Amino acid sequence: MRLTLSAVLVASTLLAAVPSSTQCNDVGTWTSTCVENTGTEVNVGASTGSGGGGSQNGDAPRGSGSESVGDAEPAEPDCVVELRRCDINYQVEAPPEVTIEDLASFRPAVPQLGGDPAGFGVVGMPTNVYASATAQEIPGEILGWDVVVRFEPAAYVFSYGDGTTARSSSGGSSWSALGQPQFTPTATSHVYAERGVYPVSVTVEYTAAVTFGSTWRPVPGVVTSSAGGYAVDVRAVRTALVDRTCQEDPGGPGC
């Protein structure tokens, strides 16, 4: 009976000596101890963990004989990084392949057509015919894409009105621009064999290229533009000896 009473007194003394709150401290690197007073018993526990996992706030995992300490709020992280990324479900559309048929709504300017002597020719002598065309850039839209189309003259096809045609890489020039006298053969001149009025026309072949805002992309094929309405009155010329020139005698033969 005395032994039992002594044990109760010792237990009561220990309960009174231990603080009412739970105190947990890390001891060394690998061992931590925890003393807990519940009011009816005293629990002393120990747990081991990695050296890098010790916690100053007592919130690290403990052994089976220990419990978490208090309801302390978790510590704020030192740095919060917000990750941003593009939606991986996007699609990149490449510009469409353009054909010469897609350029039907893009028309280069009509070339200019002329000749020497202007509107006049002599049977058996060169009649000079020439045309001019320039490179052009035309903005527009193809298949829903904004685009710029560039046309560059590549060839000139002359139709002289007598069933004869000629193809040239240039449009030719006037005799004065070439520094040549009248009735001098040129790359685009033509000799008529008979008298008559001949309708002359020219068709310019343009190469095409397109850009959607970056590089130029050539389009296979050619686009044509034609000009006409230039008539050449070809006459026969005969020579004869006269006393005076037409300037001296405007009423003389052939004047």
Describe the structure.
This protein has 255 residues and is mostly beta strands. It folds into two domains: 2-53; 100-235, Immunoglobulin-like (Sandwich), CATH 2.60.40.10. Helices cover 8% and strands 38% of the residues. The chain contains two helices and twelve strands. The protein has helices at 2-17, 175-178, and strands at 23-27, 31-37, 42-48, 112-116, 120-122, 126-132, 136-142, 145-159, 165-168, 190-191, 196-211, 217-235. The strands form three sheets. Strands 5, 7, 8, 9, 11 and 12 form a six-stranded mixed beta sheet that branches. A three-stranded antiparallel beta sheet has the order 1-2-3, with no helix packed on it. A hairpin with a 5-residue loop joins strand 11 and strand 12. The longest helix is centred in the N-terminal third of the chain and has 16 residues, at 2-17. Residues 1-33, 46-58 and 60-69 have low confidence and may be disordered.
Q: What is the second-level CATH architecture of the largest domain?
A: Sandwich
Q: How would you spell out the order of helices and strands?
A: HEEEEEEEEEHEEE
Strand tally is: 12
Shape: rod-shaped
Overall tally of structural domains: 2
Mind summarizing the main beta sheet? 6 strands, mixed
Residues in helix, %: under 10%
CATH class term of the largest domain: Mainly Beta
CATH topology of the largest domain: Immunoglobulin-like
What class do helices, strands and sheet pairing give? Answer: mainly beta
